[in-house]
Design goal:
Helices cover 78% and strands 0% of the residues. The protein is mainly α. The protein has one domain. Pfam families: VTT_dom.
């Protein structure tokens, strides 16, 4: 429970944690951020890390001169792309056996199945769209590997999605993160960045399930 509360505190107050880290450790913050983005996108059992809010706060810190904007964007695009490549490779290795896995502390079968259904419906563009959806962005490259999408095609969507996601969210934070209203309501904005995409995913899964049930009736 203590670990969970610490994680929630980090997600909701990531701006304060990052500022403190920069104050104490300086440029090591780039290594920490690279690791977080790589792990969130590259290890299928860590879909809960705060990717969107983290990138937005990084952009805000770049906007006030605490961090370097070009270095942050390029480094974290690399982390996102390499993370997806790692996840894809894991999916290619395990293949169809994944569908037999059960829920556990380290594997969310429902989230995996939602990502698989989304992938089956929208194909390769899922790799791009899923970048902006918590949980799905962790499972989408894994599912692409399971489905044996070719490495070259996957890489095209991987680089495109990673660039749009990292570049777009950091840039949004850069221009809007220092606005007083945004700073005063950052916790609410972070909640919105977590909940709104999640609700959209759940709504899409619900619609797909209703359609499937209607087709069977």
């Amino acid at each position: 429970m203590d670990v969970l509360m610490t994680l929630v505190g980090f997600v909701l107050h990531v701006d304060k944690y990052l500022e403190a880290f920069v104050t104490h450790y300086g440029a090591w913050v780039y290594a920490l951020l690279f690791l977080i983005i790589f792990v969130e996108t590259g290890v299928v059992v860590f879909p809960f890390l705060p990717g969107d809010s983290l990138l937005f706060v990084v952009g805000a810190l770049c906007g006030v001169g605490t961090m370097n904007y070009p270095v942050s964007v390029l480094l974290l695009i690399a982390a996102a792309v390499l993370g997806n490549q790692s996840n894809y490779t894991i999916g290619r290795h395990f293949g169809p056996r994944v569908f037999q896995w059960e829920d556990s502390r380290y594997f969310n079968k429902r989230a995996f199945q939602q990502a698989h259904a989304f992938y089956e419906k929208y194909g390769g563009i899922t790799i791009v769209l899923a970048r902006f959806m918590p949980f799905l962005r962790t499972f989408a490259p894994f599912v692409a590997g399971v489905a044996e999408m070719t490495r070259s095609r996957f890489t095209l969507f991987d680089v495109t999605g990673g660039t749009l996601w990292v570049g777009g969210v950091i840039t949004a934070g850069y221009f809007f993160g220092s606005i007083p209203w945004v700073k005063d309501n950052l916790e609410k904005i972070i909640w919105a960045m977590i909940l709104v995409p999640g609700l959209l995913v759940l709504f899409g899964a619900w619609k797909s399930r209703r359609k499937a049930v209607g087709a069977q009736a």
